[in-house]
Amino acid sequence: MLRFIFPVLALALTTACAGPALQRGSTSEGEVASSEGRRLQIELAVTIPEVEDDGPLHVFVPLPRDASAQRVSDLAVHAPIEGEIETDALGNRFWHGVSAGPREGFDLAVRATVERFPRVSEPVADASLSEGDRERLAQWLASTDRVPLGDVTEAELRPILEELGPPPAGAEARARQIYDWVVDHVEYKKTGTGWGNGDIFWACSERYGNCTDFHTLLLALARTEGIPGRFEMGFPIPMDRPSGGIGGYHCWVELWLPGATWVPVDASEAAKHPEDRELHFGSEEPDRVLFTRGRDLRLGGDHRSPALNYFIHTFAELDGSRLDGVEQTVRYEEMP
After folding, report:
1. Which residue spans within the chain are E strands per DSSP?
2. pLDDT value for 101
3. CATH numeric code, 120-285
4. Which CATH number does the domain 31-117+297-334 belong to among 3.40.50.1980, 2.60.40.2250, 3.40.50.10540, 2.60.260.20?
5. Model confidence over 273-327: pLDDT tens digits?
């Protein structure tokens, strides 16, 4: 457990969970959710290094967010500098702390209770997306910095789509074809350099990497076929261990399919665990905690350095430039 040892001026911010726990069939996004989930305490410990410059220091800490199968309560941030919880344009929640002048290094901590529920999405077979759907969800069909679509990636993506053949009837069937292709043709491994950045040219040429690379390729193919998709980032929570540290992040995607709206898809876990291929298209166990959604993220007017490729690690800016040496660790514990 983290020990909060900050001075009296430490800031604590708490939000209460709104509404009752999910019951089976109660979601508003065309999903079946079970009340048989998990209640977790999530803790982030962050160390900010010493700053000798007298320019303003801004600290941005990612926070867990509410979602269709996730409820966050008792959220508290403890820090020796002033700050507040803010939300970006995509609904991502983060703590933004500000300090002026040179200062010694310091620690801050986040603690939250997260309830996670299983999800099962049930898209309508043979149904197609309408033009109205695509217009309304245009932001989830657009290019991003490392995933430019259209003519820029035509040579990389078109051969894969031609290999899949003419689109079958319905968006779900095409989405499933794309998912199966990525699972079968991308290898999960983390060797050499270049993996983990979610770069479409890397993913197409090397066809290996971590979850970021898997889902970059999957999203690029889906969006090229007119299927909206969004990138989700969080932390894996083992189902077979009641507490412990979390060594790294995990990411997955959601595809918008008629009848079910947002459908969870996790191609990298399916590649690592072939026996669970069916599970990871359309359903989701409570084995993760969602923190942020989207790519190319900007966190308000005080975020002056380049947009974030993705946001799962605390980062700080000193006088508008990214500060090196920020450290973050994450722990979890099952709660009754």
Report:
1. 31-33, 38-48, 57-62, 70-78, 82-87, 93-99, 106-116, 119-121, 187-188, 208-209, 229-236, 243-246, 250-257, 261-265, 283-284, 288-293, 315-318, 321-322, 327-334
2. 79
3. 3.10.620.30
4. 2.60.40.2250
5. 999 999 999 999 999 999 999 999 999 999 999 999 999 999 999 999 999 999 9
